Amino acid sequence: MAVTLSDIAEKAGCSINTVSRVMRGDTRISKATCKKVNDIVESLGYVPNYAASSMRSKETHILGVLSADSSNPFFAELILGIEETARKNGYHILLMNTEESQQNECEALRTLTGRHVDGLISIPLYNNKETTQLYQNLPMPFIFAGRKVLGLENHSILHKDNESTREIVQYLVDSGHSRILYITGPESISNSLDRLTGYMTALKENNIVPDKSLIIETKGHIDDGYSALNQALKLQKGFTAVVCFNDLIAMGALKALYENDLSVPEDIEVFGFDNLDISQYMQPRLSTVDVPKYRLGEEAVNELLRHIKDRDLPYETKILDTRLVFRESTKRTHRFMKKK
Q: HSE of 97 in the Cβ direction (CA atoms, 13 Å)?
């Protein structure tokens, strides 16, 4: 039989209201009483009835989280930041993966709305009419972590996708490269569009006419980088550097270059994006863009909680800094590129 608040109150010799206040963290209750009640709670193995509590308070203390790709380590670190920050603030998370699918994202949004989560953090698709309409009609506050949705950009916490890619290309141009292969991510997400814009802008700023044959779109996985690089070599595009949408693509590209007896960085320089932990253990170690993944999760939760507490608080886009990390896949190998 389940232990009740009444059982705890009887054993502690106090009222049910006092027990309830202790369990809510009411600082007005004496330390002695708090210790006594908490010791009894632990000894009896009491499990709170969150459903009943949420019905009374109209709050679930659960945050819905929509992750985009369960195979990408980037999101694991981001979600760790979300979960640990939520826990510190007395919240749990309910996680659902969309795998970059519009149908999955719509179903997840409907499910989390039905679960009455207090707020939502999403890693969304960029421009889909159905998902955008669902976000617009959400009854709870929501934040986009690391991405944006067309028309709802003010709900986003972003990192410098465009600017960082421009810095990469500028470094490569300054190093003498003019034929720079770019392997993109899927066009359905904002990061891909912003990073591609950065690539194109940097070329134009250096009076290099962009060559569309040097741009290959992928889904952003390791095997995509491997296939794209082999495709480019087969077509003899004459590139001398490769910029990749993310580190996973770069890892596949490095393997393809190795198998084709091309030396990195002597023959071809390679740059990734995200600074996954594994990127420093590649051979050669991968130059990349450091994105503050854990902090992105922290900021998303903190911003969401501000909007949960104040529903009238205006939303505004926030942008986190990134920095270039130079390792062995580029000729320049000192660790961080200083901002100009």
A: 8
